[in-house]
Design goal:
The protein is an alpha/beta fold. The chain is built from six helices and eight strands; from the N terminus they run αβαββββαβαβαβα. It comes from Micromonospora nigra.
Amino acid sequence: MDSVRSPDWPVVPLGGLTANSATARYGGSTPPPPAVGRAAPPPATGPAAAPPTAPPIPVKILVAGGFGVGKTTTVGSISEISPLTTEAEMTSAGIGVDDPGSRADKTTTTVAMDFGRVTIDRSLKLYLFGTPGQARFGFMWDDLARGALGALVVVDSARLDDCYPAIDFFEQAGLPFVVGVNAFDGRLAHDLPSIRWALAIGEHVPLVRFDARDRLSVRDALLVVLDRALDRATGGRDA
């Protein structure tokens, strides 16, 4: 016997469909073979596809200042995601080293950084990095400041001495910054002109009052930082 063929399969002429094809067995039309060596057929007409949307531009902003001035609260108030914090319990070892001033209810401190995110619009996202306030963590500031476009220096009006190192750092780094005076309990220990004089900052450095616990107040302060950074980028006011 030369070959074996199932009696249920129809006989087809030479060169036609193979006897084992689905069409021969079950009937139906056969799709045309793909074109060889020809251009692909044009796509079906329809509504024009929307152009791809460009990803938002990331902007890195620092939230800096002395110990216990409200940096972690600032980031947490505005962040649209659960903020990343590195808070550690203050212990007796910090007595005489970490002075919270009149904020006796402060029981934790940032030992690395805070991180939050804010979407301004479809084209812009802010990434907030809160710096540690203690002098012993000052070595981290250079790394955190790398790639930043601006900074919000948070100030406690009752403890102006604590913010001098932050202002000196950004002046020496040449990074645009805004001084935000945190209104603890809705009050300031000094008015803004007196604070500007005490900090010895020029008129080109914005000085604003804000409340670190209020989202809209923090937003307004950060918008001033963005304006300052944009002004620097476009060669506006003297840095």
